[in-house]
Each structure stands twice: as structure tokens, then as C-alpha cells.
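TICKET #2291
ISSUE: user wants both folds in one file
ATTACHMENT 1:
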Amino acid sequence: MTSKLTVARKYDLIDRHDVMLALSRASAALALLDELTNSGHDGGWFNDGRTDKGLAALGTTRKEARDWTIDMAVNALAAALSEARDAFREQIIGGPKAVA
């Protein structure tokens, strides 16, 4: 019986690097923001009757839910970019350094 050896390919290592993981999260947050703000229709995901019923049950409006989601995506984007910056610094200089 022969066994197959698995060799990690370069792109596998790169895709799993801390910088790339953080950039992937940033990309997801940006895609969400794009969908919510530039989708060519007012409200995007928040424009159907089913959503209105669910939001009414929560005691919120479509605009409030959309604004909250945009706010969360902006915060996620900022956090992911900060993580990418910190991971890059860690890789290059061994950790975050104070800038005077």
C-alpha cells in the first residue's frame, strides 16, 4: 500500500496568513457596504414585506435596521484593516511600534 504525501502549496500558505485573513474580512465588509449603499435601489435587502414584518416585531424601522447594518459593516471594515496593518507590522518588524 502506498501513501500519498500532501505538500502545502504556496497559495495555501499565503491564503492562511494573518494579513490575508484580515484582508478577506475587510473585503467581505466592503461588499456588504457596497450592497447596502450602491445597489441601485433604496434599501437593498430591506425592501420586502417579509423584512417589514420582522422589523415590526423587533420594534424598529427599515431605515434604522439599514443604518445599524451599515454602521456594523463600517466598524468591521475598520477593525479588519487595523488587524491587517498589525499583522503586516508583526511580520516585517516583529510587532507594532509607536510612531512619534
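ATTACHMENT 2:
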Amino acid sequence: MALPISPFAPVDKQAVMGRLEATGSHDPDVLERERERMLAAARPGWIAGVVLISIGIALWIAGAGMLAGLLVLALAVWLIYRGKRNADAIESGFAEFVKPPGL
């Protein structure tokens, strides 16, 4: 399974390991650069969550948009959770890929 194009789609450890294997190299610098690319692709979901939290709080404080603010806050929490989970999957896939055999 290839890594998804959308930063909001879930990423699994096997996809990360496949992408690292597709580099065709075991050079630590090449693998680290690919890991950074994958993390950069996952980052917009987290950033969108943080922006939506500020919008949700502003709507909540305004009073007229309390329900909308609550819904925006719920979406923001989900986006941050998804971004964190994707980053964790990338890190664990990378750690497993670079782990020496037999450990």
C-alpha cells in the first residue's frame, strides 16, 4: 500500500516501510530524508487542527456560534489526533526499518 496523498488519510507502518524500501538504499542520510518528507506530508493535518481550534474558540466566545464552535472544535481534535497517529506510524515504521536484523 502506498502512502496516501492526502494529509488527512490514515498512514500505517507497512506503507511507511514500503516507501523506505522503495528508495532502494540503506544509506542513513537517504532514509532520514525520506522520513522527513513523509513527516512533512503528514504535518498539514496537525496544522489545520490547530487553526480550527482557534476558530472554534472564537465562535464559542462569540456566543451566537456555540454549536458551530463545538463542531469545529471536535473536527480540530480529530485532525490533531489523526496527524499525531500518522506521525507515530511514520516514526515506528522508520525505527523498524532501520533496526539491524536479529534485534
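RESOLUTION: both attachments delivered.
EXTRA DETAIL ON ATTACHMENT 2: The chain has a mean pLDDT of 87.
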